[in-house]
Specification:
About 15% of the residues lie in helices and about 30% in strands. With about 190 residues, the protein is α+β, with helices and mostly antiparallel strands. Strand 4 and strand 5 form a beta hairpin. The radius of gyration is 15 Å and the shape is globular. The termini are far apart. The model has no long low-confidence stretch (mean pLDDT about 95). The protein binds a DNA duplex (13 and 13 nucleotides) through strand 4, strand 5 and helix 5.
DNA sequence: GCTAGGATGCTCT
DNA sequence: GAGCATCCTAGCC
């Protein structure tokens, strides 16, 4: 069990996104531990990516993206959903990796309660689903990913095939192939073709 | 199996 | 005031 160091995130966002697949994301609270394996992510870069929240400069909402790498960026969207990102690249660059799907590991009973469903494959198979399952909201915005509450670890998951596709749900810059996923996983936000 | 549309409110222009 | 890095349900093949 190796906690990913800050230097892991302080690299090219596309490499970080790819290498995050198969790692384990953990949220610990005093009463409950949640964990899940990362099976689907998307990369959001700065200058060339009109879909990136940081594309038009820093605002109050996206300031965490401009900060140092290895921190959680949580934003609210569609009036009811939170999405979780991992900040990448050096301080001053607005880049991040969106976590789109997890394979639930620990805390599954609590996730079922949070999500209102018993179907394991429906607990964390979408960016807003996994924040709901893990109980993540604005409170976690800006927390370190190697801290007391949030952690990302490498548990030596064996090799797998990586799938690549266009990102999902965008209007701007929709054609960049910056979505990465674990091929054959049953916990993705979309069925593979 | 699929698609269309509504929910709902923060954030920036 | 418009636009959202979404999810769920109803209705229709």
């Amino acid at each position: 069990m190796l906690i990913l160091p800050q230097s892991f995130y302080n690299r090219d966002t596309l490499i970080v996104a790819r290498e995050l697949l198969g790692k384990v994301f953990i949220r610990k609270t005093p009463s409950q531990t949640f964990s899940g394996r990362l099976v689907e992510v998307e990369a959001y870069l700065d200058s060339i990516d009109a879909a990136c929240h940081g594309y038009n400069g820093m605002t109050k909402r996206n300031e965490v993206m401009f900060g140092p790498p290895g921190f959680a960026y949580v934003y609210f969207t569609y009036g009811m959903h939170y999405c979780l990102n991992f900040v990448t690249e050096e301080e001053g660059r607005a880049a991040a990796v969106l976590i789109r799907a997890l394979e639930p590991m620990e805390g599954i009973e609590a996730m079922k309660k949070n999500r209102g469903t018993d179907l394991i494959t429906n607990l964390c198979s979408g960016p807003a689903k996994l924040t709901m399952a893990f109980g993540i909201d604005r409170t976690q915005n800006g927390l370190p990913l190697s801290g007391d509450e949030l952690l990302v670890v490498d548990d030596g998951y064996p090799d797998f095939e990586t799938g690549v596709s266009e990102r999902i749900g965008l209007n701007a810059a929709a054609d960049f192939p910056w979505r990465f996923y674990v091929k054959g996983s049953g916990f993705l936000s979309r069925r593979e073709k």
